Amino acid sequence: MSTLFKKSSPGREGVWPQAPSQDLGELLPEGLLRGAPAGMPSLSELDVVRHFSLLSRKNFGVDSNFYPLGSCTMKYNPKFCEDIAGLPGFARLHPLLPQLPRGDELTQGALEVMYETERWLCEILGMSEFTLHPMAGAHGELTGVLTIAAYHADKGNKKTKIICPDSAHGTNPASAAIAGYEVVSIASKDGIVDPDALAEVLDDEVAAMMMTCPNTLGLFEKNLPKIVEMLRSVDALLYYDGANLNAIMGKMRVGDAGFDVVHVNLHKTFGTPHGGGGPGSGPVGVCEKLVPYLPVSRVVKDPSGRFHLRYDYPKSIGYVAPFYGNFGVVLKAYAYMLRLGREGLIKVSENAVLAANYLRKTLDDVLEVPYDRVCMHEFVASADKQSQKGVRALDIAKALLDKGYHAPTIYFPLIVKECLMFEPTETESKETMDQFVADLRDILALAESDPAAVQAAPVTTPVGRLDETRAARNMEITDDM
Amino acid sequence: MPYVPHTPEDTRAMLGAIGAGSVEELFAEIPLALRPKSFDLPEGLSEMATRQRIEDLAARNSNGMVSFLGAGFYDHYVPSAVDALISRGEFYTAYTPYQPEASQGTLQAIFEYQTAVARLMGMECANASVYDGGTALYEAMMMAVRQTKRVKVIVSETVSPIYRILLDTYTRNLKLTLVTVPQAKGATDFAAMQAALDDATACVVVQNPNFFGCVEDASALFAAAKAKGALAIVSAYPVLQSVLKTPSAMGADIAVAEGQSLGLPLSFGGPYLGIMTSTKPLVRQMPGRIVGRTQDGQGRTGYVLTLQAREQHIRRQKATSNICSNQALCALRSLIHLSLLGEEGLARTARVSMENARYAAKKLTAIKGVELLNGAPFGNEFAITLPRSAQDVCLTLIEKGFVPGFPLGRYYQGMDNALLVCCTEKNSRRDIDILAAWMEDAI
Amino acid sequence: MFPTDLLYTPSHEWAKIEGDTATVGITSFAQEQLGDITFVDLPAIGATVTQGKEFGSIESVKAASELYSPVSGEVVEVNADLDGAPELVNQEPFAGGWMIKVKLSAKPEGLLDAAAYEENAKSCH
């Protein structure tokens, strides 16, 4: 399908505003103007609508496909949340209004949404305060690590290192490094953090350790109390990567369990859509002793019930976002929380864990599950056995696309060979999972009888496997190259 | 239970297959000591009640005010087709396109987005976007630091103060020197920036139009930077970029922008769109995702995420950035918006906005005691000085339902009487006339 | 299995020492592990490299790796062919896929011979 630019027909009218009345030369001196047109396409409204409608049909999405994508929590995104984010009272609200004189009064509704969302998150996670500013999960990590750095600097601690388990998301070490820390990786044992391995690297220079629980293998970190105690002994803080929060709402609060800092992904646990890769939202929560270092501004409620933005926090790390984070995403998450309420959120985690275990048990006779015990909201399987016959995890993933399923996460975490990571989420029905397993069984049977057929997948998608080497070597990243 | 499909029968069957007696049994590994001390939350609401609650909150924001507030975030008209297309579930409920065969829609759209923004800036390369314009500016600065292996960054004070405070947070723990060169009556002090250049300088950073709305030409500064081995960075305004001299024509190495003005609602600060473009030699320093064109085994054209060795999931702590996501849906919005307007529509938007700004400037400076801050050429925004506090004037006008602009005293010392006024194609001449009348009264 | 006229590092670089000049590249084992090479980032002529320290990096579709210099000295030549044809590192790691030539400032110490390197490479599987 050709690009928009190739479809352009100069002179064709799109959605144009009224014509200007002055020559451009009257507005600005020639030397400040563009030499040549920008090269935007000229298309009719129907041209554009058809182009993007056709493009949309080349996409999988949760609305049309089961997405058992481990670590990503691809649950259903309620439609009414999208409507709410579009309410003009919010969508047209200029972010600088609160900075005008008595501007808080112009934005009471929005400030209340922020304040209330923070309260919900504090209670769900067991933290003292939250900030909604981080604009994605990785941005939350960076914010959290900067908060940790500010805490240590304020206490006069000389800290240079952050520990990440080898099963960690790649963003963990990257965020720590960008905040100026040296990253120390430790090996897992039986799929979880090994206190002995931690003891070997733990010293006074350790600022923090970044963990997720359940971890990326979907396993609960049984040694958590021990780990908390060890870190406390050197005044190191414990960071919780909230990527896997969907497993534990109402079952464990990370603050109660000893975590000092946490980020949550609203686009995972709280039902806001992934949008093909963003925007997300990664609010950060902290325990009491870290509250002074949170980013500004912060939203507060005065005794009369009015909401205000406050900036006077001298120990704050400063600004991590131009304004208050991805407010539009926060609004959807707030609607989702209101809708589900206390019981609903508990049921989310219960059913996410139920579904993951059901899926694990219904396929563990055909696909090896290296840690085949009760899992939380996700689990990993290994296609190591199949790969000996030439069918790798990648091939199975591609064959699933042909059956209309999005592939599970593959080759992550790095510590399991030929890894396939499944997370069905609470919103998929038993029938969907049963059909999925039946189709997966067919693929695995085919892998035995005709490996080449699986290796040739996918064949029903708009394109087959693409030459990534060619893409990287030729580097054609715009239509003009 | 909304959004959870399991009937009691399903749950029993699933538990049976697992071999567990109850759902609670599945959580047995969480020790009692770690169980929640409280989980005190309200009960859930129906969809209708939730909606009503949130509509009530929306009503508690300012609604229906006439606004001349911009300062980097602009209220342009968004064609209806943008919302219609972006609401397709195939786009917004999709994941990151890691499975390219199932994501050609998202991938081709990002490729087209990269093309559009690169063309707008006159640059060769673009990434798939980052969180917002401020993050884009920070990432651009870090690209320059890595490329030059130098540590000094020279930033004009006419770069948005909202972005400069972000740079400050992000660089606090790094061994970098940020030098801010003071503005000169709202204009960029190019001579002082040039004088600050030395062999340790990684980059110079300017904004065009600058925060005060002035349209400038940084060509001479950029040539001087180049001679010193430093890179040149511009933060631009995409709508006006359709008519203004391009960053590349000025000799910039990296051009970034806040893409909100391209079809995104103001939405109280986000989600927005961080546009990043660069010359080709810098592409491997780019953070975040990049889409490239390639072929499948049958020679069919397709699109994939490429140059991934830069990114955190491969390079971990040595990645160019910790950024994992892009603002894919916002990038798609901007692309649809640009396509609907096209070359002519975008240029008209820029020109009509600029014409309205000139009309407003004329009307406002006709008031006794109101003057332009400087005589520099401006785009769709301009700074004026008032005979009294801009905050006070603002307050008076807000009470009449008009937001007259942004008082500059908040970020610039000695500018308590200065007001930044913005117009887009949405501000009618009638509204401008009323604004001028109210302002005359207020003064 | 590995050429015996070269010396090796445990990080899979090789050096061919001729007089006071060394030619440097990565081994056939290393390129296999990386897969299709897409980009090689090398220092400029005149740069100084130090034994055991990073002198560049190499990227494939799915991996990236730093390059560690087996020798110390000044870079006198860079393989410009790799710019347009990084696949040379896959095709001819010990010949056309060479990376830099270094005028030695000191005799390299502790490098492995082919047999010792082969042992080392085996243990990496």
Task: Describe this entry's structure for a reader.
- The complex is a heterotrimer of chains A (481), B (443) and C (125).
- Chain A has helices spanning 4-7, 24-27, 45-56, 79-85, 88-91, 108-125, 137-155, 171-178, 195-201, 224-233, 266-269, 327-363, 384-387, 393-402, 430-449, 451-455, 468-474; strands at residues 129-131, 161-165, 182-186, 188-189, 192-193, 206-211, 237-242, 261-264, 284-286, 298-301, 307-310, 379-382, 409-410, 419-422.
- Chain A contains 17 helices and 14 strands.
- In chain A, helix 6 (108-125) packs parallel to helix 12 (327-363), helix 7 (137-155) crosses helix 8 and helix 12 crosses helix 15 (430-449).
- Chain A folds into two domains: 81-339, Aspartate Aminotransferase, domain 2, CATH 3.40.640.10; 342-455, Alpha-Beta Complex (Aspartate Aminotransferase, domain 1), CATH 3.90.1150.
- Chain A is globular, with a radius of gyration of 25 Å.
- Chain A is an alpha/beta fold.
- Chain B has two domains: 66-77 and 344-442, Alpha-Beta Complex (Aspartate Aminotransferase, domain 1), CATH 3.90.1150; 80-336, Aspartate Aminotransferase, domain 2.
- Chain B contains 15 helices and 15 strands.
- Chain B has helices spanning 8-18, 47-59, 80-86, 89-92, 104-121, 133-148, 161-171, 190-196, 219-227, 238-241, 247-250, 312-315, 328-365, 390-399, 429-442; strands at residues 66-67, 125-126, 152-156, 177-181, 201-208, 231-236, 254-258, 274-278, 291-295, 301-305, 371-372, 381-385, 402-403, 406-407, 418-422.
- In chain B, the strands form four sheets. In chain B, strands 2-8-7-6-5-3-4 form a seven-stranded mixed β-sheet, sandwiched between helices.
- Chain B is globular.
- The termini of chain B are far apart.
- Chain C is of the alpha+beta class and 125 residues long.
- Chain C has one domain (7-107): RNA polymerase II/Efflux pump adaptor protein, barrel-sandwich hybrid domain (OB fold (Dihydrolipoamide Acetyltransferase, E2P), Beta Barrel), CATH 2.40.50.
- Chain C contains four helices and nine strands.
- In chain C, the strands form two sheets. Chain C has a six-stranded antiparallel β-sheet. A three-stranded antiparallel β-sheet of chain C has the order 4-6-7, with no helix packed on it.
- In chain C, a hairpin with a 3-residue loop joins strand 6 and strand 7.
- The longest helix of chain C has 10 residues, at 114-123.
- Chains A and B meet through helix 3, helix 4, helix 5, helix 6 and helix 7 of A and helix 1, helix 2, helix 3, helix 4 and helix 5 of B.
